[in-house]
Amino acid sequence: MAVILVTNDDGVHSPGIIALQRSMKSLGDPYIVAPDRERSAAGHSLTLHRPLKVTELRDRIYCINGTPTDCVTVAINKILPEKPVLIVSGINRGGNLGDDITYSGTVSAAVEGTIFGIPSLAFSLISDKHFHFDAAASMAFPIAQFVLEHSLPYDTLLNINIPNLPPEEIRGIKFTRQGKRIYDGSIQETYDPWGEKHYWIGGGKPYWERGEDMDMDAVQAGFISITPIHLDLTNYEALALFRQTWPLSDLWDKRRETL
Question: Pick from 13, 23, 230, 233: which is nearest to 123 by CA?
Fold first, then answer.
C-alpha cells in the first residue's frame, strides 16, 4: 500500500494524531512521525544547532525530539520506506485560523510537505476542551480521499478547520479565505522567586476582521472551513503597482550619491 505520513505539533501521544492515523488506514499505509512533546506555535522552524534523536515507539509510530518541520523532512529522507503519497497533519487541539497559520506547527508541517511536492493537509479542531477527535477524523477521511484521487494545485496546501461538533450537527463544507485577527493583552508579566521580571506570551482577547467568506465566520456558523494556502507569498498586485510607481532609477542614483 502507498505510504501516508501522519504528523502534528501536539506531540506523538496526542489523541488527535491517533484518530487521524486510524482514519487513514483504508487509504494507505499510515506512519506517524511526530514531535516527542507539544511543539505548538513552532512555526516553520528547523533544528540546526543540535542533533535529532528518532525513537520508534511502536510499529509505524516514531517520535523525534524536534519540530513538526523536522519530523516531516527526517521522515521523508530517513524513516519512511518510500516517498509518501500524502501528508496529513493534526488533528490539532484548537483552531488554526487567520494569522495563526504563520505560527502554527500543524500548518507548517503541511508547508514542508508541499515544498517536497507532496499533497499536504492540515486539520484542526475548533475547541479548547472535550474534543470530538473521532468525529473530526471521520470528516478528514473523505477530504483526504478526494485529494489522493485528484491531487492539489502546484505549491498549494489545504488548511482545514473543523467545528467541534458531532458529524450530524456540522452544516457542511465551505471554501474560505484566510481571516485576520489580532490579540489584545497577549503579553503577560510575571516574576520569578528572586523578583526578576519575565514575560509570558499567550492568552489575550482575539479580535476578528469579519467577512462571510473568511475561515472564522465559516466555523462559527457550523461549517468546515477549507482554505487553500499558496507557498508563493508574492503580492502580485503590489508588485505591479511598485513597478509602475516607484522611481527605481532615482532611488539608485540617490544611493550612489551617499557613497
Answer: 23
